[in-house]
Amino acid sequence: MNHSRWHLLPPIPDQRLANHPDFPPLIIQLLYNRGLTEPSQWQSFIAGDESQFHDPFLLPGIAQAVTRIYRALLSGEKIAIYGDFDADGISATALLVEGLSRLGSEAIPYIPHRLTEGYGLKKAALEGLYRQGVSLVITVDCGITSSAEIKAAAGMGLDVIVTDHHTPLPEIPPAVAIVNPRMPDSTYPFRELAGVGVALKLLQALLQNLGKEEYLAGLMDLVALGTIADLSPLLGENRYLVKEGLRQINASPRLGLNAMITQAGLNPGSISAENISWTIAPRLNAAGRLEHAISSYKLLITDSPREAYELAAWLDQKNTERQKLTSTFLTRAREQVLAEGVSSLLFAGDHDYPLGVAGLVAGKLSEEFYRPVIITRTGEKTTSGSGRSIPEFNIIAALTQCRHLLSQFGGHSQAAGFTLPTRNLASLQQTLRRIAEEQLAGADLRRRLDIDAAVTLPDLGGDTFQMTQLLAPFGKGNPLPIFLSRRVEVISCRTMGNGDEHLRLKLRQDGSVWDGVAFRLGSYLAEITSHLDIVYNLEIDRWKGAERLRLNIMDFTPSI
């Protein structure tokens, strides 16, 4: 039996389309699988060019926001950019502070402390900004659910512009303007912008009005960072933004990013979306998880080589601490889950679970058990939680059904956070489990692998890999191409890694020999037979300065 659900995507039904003269059949299939069913869309997708860069004035609320900011610039008002403590919020904060500062504004950042303040706008923080002489607050990556706090800000004479990409609640905050592609009245052609993408559109609209659009050029690296880190789909406008940002990062990285690239041992000039996802974003996020995210913000805006080096080294250290902490509490949470029994929705937590890694632990457990998972830190009066989910279960929709129990909540279909009075925790667990049991009844709770095409190993020779790279950057919404090969001969197989966690294989089919690695599948060594059906993607193995292609095996089953 497969360890995952294998879903081989259907071949293109129209053979005339499949044999289009401009692209090889395999590339056409990959494009078709990503929802691009017309030849006119293919070149646009591969180019990822400025044709995807939409008019910012199509966003709801943007004209009012630009008018208010322009007034603040003319009268020399002090503006605060109120961000979030994750990489998306940090990069969005840096983008608007840097962009407004170029226009002569006195713009200051405010990023809340994850552990002492929590997510979103806080009345005490707004009062503090007002006392500092701030008269306009622009939120980035937060604010759409902060009706009470924005009402309080208006009461003290503080104007608030909300820029956010999270789903609005029925009650819309009484802000001066709300810029969010997910607003009910939005007709913006692309709803999937990250928080930093929405911030960019606001700045683009402002600069467009002032005839200074060239100021955007040096800020696209920040947009790429936040968009990739927030797992926003790398399709449509995001694809253009990320391609432009990666181009800037590889051509002329800002000091802080360059220091991080060097510290992490990455190759300058060849940074990919995967490098940002797996290496750079976790370091940017580490500060906010363990201490204060302002250090990551400082790294992004510094013009001091010494400060860039010191902050990059500090973030590297914090990331190592974060990894150890995650591992410790993952082990504990797994034990709690197994002791309680695996149900449709998994809960774990205690009074000493660190909030900074709760989401990471939830994500790893969700991946392992293929269930929605909630990790809580239980206080005497207040409990905070972080949830991660699977595509079959919309966790923010489930929390919305429980909003009468919650003090505050927010997030996406696959990731959410909340706080509630501790006395309500048992009711929340009971209600969420009931919702999950109803929605997941009869579901095959194994990870689903969407397979792009069935191929033989010889099909992968020549320039196949280089052609697939035309679809990069890869990420959510545009995953690395996944292939299926049947009846592949196993020449050799052995375990590797700590605790024999992984498998290393040498495989052959019709004279074509490939190396393969099956990460985290070492426990299935006994299932290896002479011939396997394998699901995999292609990756470059870099070892001792040499590069060679290998198969990254995601699942396998003995051939029939």
Summarize the structure.
The chain has 560 residues and is α/β, with parallel strands linked by helices. 40% of the residues lie in helices and 21% in strands.
- Rg of Cα set: 24 Å
CATH class type of the domain at 52-218: Alpha Beta
Number of strands: 18
If strands are numbered along the chain, what order do they take across the biggest sheet? 3-2-4-5-6
| Helix content estimate | 40-55%
Largest β sheet strand count, sense and barrel closure: 5 strands, parallel
CATH topology of the domain at 52-218: inorganic pyrophosphatase (n-terminal core)
Q: What's the CATH architecture of the domain at 52-218? A: Alpha-Beta Complex
Helix count, DSSP H or I runs of 4 or more residues: 18
Strand content: 15-25%
Helix-strand layout with pairing:
Elements: E1 5-8, H1 15-18, H2 25-33, H3 39-47, H4 62-75, E2 78-82, H5 87-102, E3 106-110, H6 123-131, E4 134-140, H7 147-155, E5 159-163, E6 177-179, H8 195-210, H9 220-229, H10 236-251, H11 255-263, H12 273-290, H13 294-301, H14 305-340, E7 346-350, H15 355-369, E8 373-378, E9 382-388, H16 395-401, E10 408-411, E11 415-421, H17 425-440, E12 448-451, E13 453-454, H18 464-468, E14 483-496, E15 502-509, E16 512-518, E17 531-543, E18 546-558
Parallel strand pairs: 1-12, 2-3, 2-4, 4-5, 5-6, 7-8, 13-14, 16-18
Antiparallel strand pairs: 8-9, 9-11, 10-11, 14-15, 14-17, 15-16, 17-18
Helix pairs in contact: 4-8, 5-8, 5-9, 5-13, 8-9, 9-10, 9-12, 11-14, 12-13, 12-14, 13-14, 14-15
